[in-house]
Design brief:
The chain starts with 5 loop residues before the first strand and ends with a strand. Strand 20 and strand 21 form a beta hairpin. The strands form five sheets. Strands 12, 13, 14, 15, 17, 22, 23, 24 and 26 form a nine-stranded antiparallel beta sheet that branches. The chain has a seven-stranded mixed beta sheet with strand order 9-16-25-18-19-20-21, with no helix packed on it. The chain is built from eleven helices and 26 strands. With about 525 residues, the chain is α+β, with helices and mostly antiparallel strands. The protein has helices spanning about 40-45, 50-60, 95-100, 105-125, 175-180, 190-205, 215-220, 230-240, 250-260, 265-275, 330-340, and strands at about 5, 10-20, 20-30, 35-40, 70-80, 80-85, 140, 145, 305, 320, 345, 350-355, 365, 370, 375-380, 385-390, 400-410, 415-420, 425-435, 435-445, 445-455, 465-475, 475-485, 485-495, 500-510, 515-525.
């Protein structure tokens, strides 16, 4: 757009927030995607000492794994402008969510605790201390919490005591006692801040009350936090995390193990636990219109080289609710992540997780075969055909997330998930191609229309997890796609928006060879349900 400022090749679109070091903008990347660009204040960027420190700290931040964080994608100095580029996370920050909707509870509070602990474990594992963990630095995405602003954290320089000298920087309400006193910091300061953030999230109150900064800092050093309102299990962990002596606090890894009630946990599995227990703040968009009818088993599919999805059984599907999980409950969800079985569900709410023995269509046809073994759903598709299968559960009302963990076993082509399926095979497809691009399509009347892409993607370490958000409102259908936690596509269909209906998985070969795709999980749940 004419007149937009360009920094380092990124087109700044609008201001997302302002802080002590600079201004954060929503920006368009050179390849057409979205990112958050922090533009450092010019008076800082012109300081040679700051430039040296900036380059060192960016190098440290880039070593942080993306689990439950907004990873650093790029950074540089463009003339007198220093900038830091991170993944754009769609959603409010924790401070805003609590202010507008009240404290978190149940599975959301548990998922928040696990998500932030996972992020801290990844940050500390890269030799970085966050130093300013607070509610406004935790964004609540549709997939769960994401910790931001560690990109300007100081690098932990390997010394005799593994410490780094530290001036008094940070947000008073969430600072550790040693931070207040200006003492050297260790990762234990972030664990202390985790406890304070959980107090705020679970009660809506600051851990040491209000008042002037001097009053709050005095209480941090000399008094204990107010933990009234936290349940016993969470209160015990927060109390340990907020011990006055840094050596008495658990590490982020031990904190994560305590939260799930088990032994060591990989960051990838912890992130999936968060995704599957997180429902997030309630949506504030207008109510969705009534959904279209779902295709029947004898309904028309695409006219050429297609196989239509079978119908969800019994018309209106049962609704499901994920139980609030803590300790043993999180262990149960973790087991589901590890072996691909049904998570802890009970009737009367929206979320659904497949175990692929509960009504998924199996069998052979001219287009290919579909088989299920209780741990995975495998589509083998012949050349020239495309195979798309629906889950045996209808989408819940309102905006939804559809997710699948997929692995290409043979051939080349595309695979992914789809949502808002209706009569005549209409649907939105979210596809990953084997040449590492992402595509979002609308299919109606058997004719596909590309809404986004092909756009390049950078594969992460999450094992090929494709997540789609489908949100219909008066302005159209908003569609977002993540691959291994990275937001890779965002678009809006305003011409022929589809509404809630069926959802499922998809695979199609490229060229003259067939393709086989193994779907190891499938999840369907409301956004902010």
């Amino acid at each position: 757009m004419t007149g937009d400022r360009i920094v380092g090749g990124y087109t700044l679109r609008r201001v997302l927030g302002r802080g002590g070091m600079g201004v954060v903008h929503l920006a368009t990347t050179p390849t057409g995607g979205l990112a958050a660009v922090k533009v450092i204040h010019p008076e800082l960027a012109r300081d040679p000492a700051f430039r040296r420190r900036f380059e060192r700290e960016v190098a440290a931040a880039r070593r942080v794994a993306r689990f439950c964080t907004a990873p650093v994608l790029d950074a540089g100095i463009d003339g007198d402008t220093a900038y830091l580029v991170t993944e754009y996370v769609k959603g409010p920050d924790l401070a805003q969510a609590v202010r507008e909707q009240g404290p978190l509870a149940g599975s959301n509070l548990d998922a928040l605790a696990v998500g932030i602990a996972t992020a801290l474990s990844a940050i500390h594992g890269a030799g970085v201390i966050h130093r300013d963990l607070k509610p406004s630095n935790v964004l609540l995405s549709p997939l769960g919490p994401r910790v931001i602003d560690f990109g300007i954290a100081q690098l932990v320089e390997a010394g005799p005591a593994g410490q780094v000298s530290q001036v008094v920087l940070g947000t008073p309400a969430f600072m550790a006692p040693e931070q207040v006193r200006g003492e050297p910091l260790t990762p234990a300061a972030d664990v202390y801040a985790w406890g304070g953030v959980m107090v705020f999230a679970g009660t809506g109150r600051l851990p040491f009350g209000g008042g002037s900064p001097a009053e709050v800092l005095y209480r941090i050093v000399n008094e204990g936090p107010s933990l009234d309102g936290l349940d016993e299990g969470m209160r015990d962990l927060v109390e340990r995390a907020m011990a006055k002596e840094p050596g008495l606090r658990p590490s982020a890894e031990r904190l994560l193990a305590a939260l799930v009630g088990g032994g060591p946990l990989t960051h990838a599995h912890a992130t999936e636990v968060v995704e599957r227990t997180w429902t997030g703040p309630a949506p504030t968009l207008p109510a969705d219109p009534a959904p279209p009818s779902v295709p029947s088993s004898g309904g028309a599919g695409e006219p050429v080289h297609t196989v239509a999805p079978h119908s969800p059984p019994g018309g209106t599907a049962r609704r499901w609710r994920v139980r609030a999980v803590r300790a043993a409950g999180l262990v149960a969800v973790l087991a589901a992540v590890a072996v691909g079985v049904t998570a802890v569900l009970e009737p009367e709410s929206g979320p659904y997780r497949a175990d692929f023995s509960d009504g998924w269509e199996v069998g052979a046809s001219q287009a290919g075969t579909a088989r299920a073994d209780g741990t995975a759903y495998v589509l083998t598709v012949e050349p020239g055909w495309r195979l798309w299968k629906s889950a045996p559960r209808r989408e819940p009302e309102g905006p939804v997330l559809v997710a699948a963990k997929a692995r290409l076993e043979r051939g080349t082509g595309e695979y992914g998930v789809w949502c808002h399926g209706g009569t005549g095979g209409s649907r939105y497809e979210f596809l990953v191609r084997t040449d590492q691009v992402a595509i979002v399509k609308r299919v109606a009347g058997g004719r596909p229309v590309v809404l986004h892409g092909p756009g390049p993607v950078r594969r992460g370490t999450g094992g090929g997890r494709v997540v789609a958000e489908c949100r219909r409102d008066a302005g159209g259908a908003t569609l977002r796609m993540w691959l291994d936690e990275a937001l890779v596509a965002e678009t809006t269909d305003v011409t022929e928006p589809l509404g809630p209906g069926a959802a499922g998985v998809h695979a199609a070969p490229a060229g003259r060879q067939g393709v086989r795709v193994r779907f190891e999980s499938f999840d369907l749940k409301p956004v902010g349900g």
